[in-house]
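Assemble and predict.
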Amino acid sequence: MRKGRSSLEFERTPVIESAASVVGKKEGDGPFGSLFDQVEQDAMAGKPTWEEAESFMQKEACRIALEKGGLEKEEIRYLFAGDLLGQLIATSFGVKELEIPMFGLYGACSTIGEALSLGAMTVAAGYGERVLAVASSHFATAEKQFRFPLGYGNQRPYSATWTVTGSGAFVLSDRDKVRDTETGKGLAVITGITTGKIEDMGIRDSMNMGAAMAPAAYSVILRNLMDFEREETDYDRIITGDLGVVGRTVLLDFMKAGGRDLSEVHMDCGVEIYNRQEQDTHSGGSGCGCAAVTLAAFILEKIRTGEWKRVLFVPTGALLSTVSFNEGQTIPGIAHGVVIEHRKPERSIGWII
Amino acid sequence: MRKGRSSLEFERTPVIESAASVVGKKEGDGPFGSLFDQVEQDAMAGKPTWEEAESFMQKEACRIALEKGGLEKEEIRYLFAGDLLGQLIATSFGVKELEIPMFGLYGACSTIGEALSLGAMTVAAGYGERVLAVASSHFATAEKQFRFPLGYGNQRPYSATWTVTGSGAFVLSDRDKVRDTETGKGLAVITGITTGKIEDMGIRDSMNMGAAMAPAAYSVILRNLMDFEREETDYDRIITGDLGVVGRTVLLDFMKAGGRDLSEVHMDCGVEIYNRQEQDTHSGGSGCGCAAVTLAAFILEKIRTGEWKRVLFVPTGALLSTVSFNEGQTIPGIAHGVVIEHRKPERSIGWII
């Protein structure tokens, strides 16, 4: 079950039984707009504060994921959840009504990778038949927390990313519990994980988070390929969370220097989620929500239909804090790798997983 | 293995192989002073900022825990770590040199309970032979984050608690990996966990965190007794993290109303860690470090020697944030229960666990 130095391969592979994405207007206007389950019409989502709006999106994402799976909240054993804000307030106020035993997580923008990893470990070990993994971010709550008041209207360099407003939720289930669906498409299962450590290359530019995170992505991808003894082409896609255009370049350069050419298989959720030129999002999207909603709305479908047979999903996080930053500290990064694979439906003999 | 609605009982019980505590001067002057592994002589611990001092204490706690177990960092498969600060900066900068695959956790002051729970789940499932669980807090970093600048000298009501400066680290190990010790005392093993959900009774007083956390402690303790079909007297001690004098009263009243008398078996780390009158700490100690260092320095020894055969350890967290608080929100609480039991050394036939 343990694989190499930092990975696990699951014998009893957990299934991503259902997933949901709830996003803001800007994300709804982007390339994946029609794929999201719910698009809020403004950044407040009908709430008095941005933070409550973000909480609401987490709550909605969980609700829709349960609904799509035909599940009640009582069927969920554990909740793995987090967001970018200090003390995880978007999460605390978002999920409290679910009344599910909860593990609060912080992995910056890599949080959904951390939640899926721990969730998969929990289901594969038989600790729960079903768990819920959820993460969120919000442009306005993140700007307020990490950068400038929005009314100040600061200029953003081209290396800056735009925090995605949105939340993605995923129900991970024991394979014997997955209900047959009428779609006949296939299932997305988590076959393994590679857990990242903190990587710090000394980046101090808070407007270039891609560069801060690229070493963490590099380290997890390389470690995954070594632990599972795979080539980069053994994956249909290797998908990072929110490196953006600048961070992606750093990653591909690092990889090339290490003798690996990722250019054919690499995709970055942050690069894809907006029409960057028209939507003026510079280096791309970022935030916990970026990788989470892209997985829920876009990536999962490709895997379920079998267009992609095996994907390495690597949400990336920059461990930025205004306190440490103002004290002259660097911005360390972390990433969490999750191997998601297609499994065929075999109706006559049940699912082959 | 699943037990009741929110608990797990481990078939292969993980052992707390070694533990370490590093604290500040005030904690060193308290009742447990002589029991801590390392007492720093001032709040800066020789570092330029309080935050770096807290990081240093985490690093030291991990180093000493490894040293006491005769272990190298390469023998640790996963790290479960957290603190109170936004974006877990005490942790990020504290543990990065360990280079261990990491899961960052946020459970406010309940974090060490969350870390021990996930760590025990990981070891019991065979995902790693050894993991490290660590948490920290620091009076000055917490005051800066949550309350007033220290130089402002605000008055504190008697319901306020004093954030413990310190870090506790624990190596959890597979039972076959535990090296025989010369002490012959016995082992502390984790036999089960009860995971808390978010509890919100509408408390809005940030100077009365005990009251905010008591409902979460109540809920986890009651659930634990129900899930394991135990009476409160089946535990030698039921130990909460940092309710303090005020929160403890609330918990005991709640319990009494529910027909359970906890007064004989209950202990609160926050009540015990300081000489409250002389040290002017009002309701008691608090912070992630409070429960963590009390477990490492005081509780574990009682269990290892067999003076206490079975303990329910329940670190408690108040999910307070200045952002949500200033927006008029309540302070929800969460708690994580860990059942720690004594196992006898049986030298002739190896450890009976």
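Residues 27 and 139 of chain A are 11 Å apart (CA to CA).
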